[in-house]
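Troubleshooting entry. The earlier prediction with zinc ion gave an output that would not parse, so I re-checked the input for stray whitespace and re-submitted. Clean input:
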Amino acid sequence: MFWNKAMETISAGDLEALQLKRLKWTLRQTQQVSLYQKKMKEAGITPDDIRSLDDLQKIPFTTKKDLQAGYPFGLLAVPKREIVRIHTTSGTTGKPTVVGYTRADLGNWSELIARNMVMVGLTDEDTFQNAVNYGLFTGGLGFHYGAERVGMTVVPSATGNTKRQIEMIEDFGVTAIHCTPSYAMHLAEVAESMGAELATLKTGIFGAEPWSESMRAELEKRLGLTAYDSYGLSEMYGPGVAFECRERDGLHIWHDSYLVEIIDPVTGEALGPGERGELVITPLVKEAMPLLRYRTGDVTMLMEDECPCGRGQKIARITGRSDDMLVIRGINVFPSQIEHVLLSLPEVGEQFMVYIDRVKHLDEMTIEVEMSKASFSGELQDLARVQRHVAGALHSTLGLRTTVKLVEPGALPRFEGKARRVVDRRGAI
Ligand SMILES: [Zn+2]
């Protein structure tokens, strides 16, 4: 099923012509922004120097720091009266970025979300529970308006009161749900404790944090649904940038709206299909906040194979954000790798917390893990064996020695939005 078949299956030649036309429009739009006037001047180029898609390489990158420096409205390319809504990034590092939307931006955004939802088989017959934060976070209103555009019955449940969320799923016959993967796991736990079967639920859309294939298997088994990965970032409207189709092998990114590059994060050089690097996006239809070559910090690659569904080139699932990446004694560790290991071990649950300390100039990582209900016997020799097993499995995947502390089932915090599983106590280096 397609929402916009002509655009979703556009031929390579037509796509290239459309991208170039839209890139030129975007370049003109960015000339309303002093940051871009300055960047182009420094690079010694004008918008007229960009005559082909390859010329994109001449344009300097835009970074998160550039956006932070423009706080609050420095990146906007239209007069304030044309802005009909603002969202912000979560701002976990420094000032948040303010993202403005014109009426046309909101229309484009809901169009992309509609494409994603129809791509996984959702229709106006579906009832959709949107269990994410509805505030400045883009996940709430973004999916809300996309689902309404498809004609679904939307339940704007937001987060919180998990028992009530489960009652709503059962009472309203909810067929599709959107939330973070960590909250989905919490929903599964609470549903199990209530004896709720969630029989109508068939589709789960999970995003806003990286999650592993073993997490997918676990969520599908416990919630009785098919789980799809959703990718987006507030700087590009929000969710809806890329999404899995029913093949669930990579995410379709909407090339008519986003010009995609993968670069070596250190040298900035372009990488080819199959080579993993940092995703760089130039949005092609954004009016209020156009960006050029925005460095997302997200690690992925362009996929080589054509998808049987007929849509355009996919990107691989995001391995992690550079923001999430931990450097422990010089080794790169993503929390999603820890999750992956824990889910493969039956003795422990999927909940964990990571603490990082510096002891005598050395980084020490401590991982608190809940025992699984089945293995929670409380016998000391048993605990020691499980602890060794978990530490060994983590060591072989991460290449790093860690301290594992086992805790009772239910002892660790649950998260309604993005999980905050890492506490870095190393202080300034
Ligand atoms: Zn596909």
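This one parsed fine. The pocket of zinc ion is lined by residues 245, 247, 252, 307, 309, 311 (CB under 6 Å).
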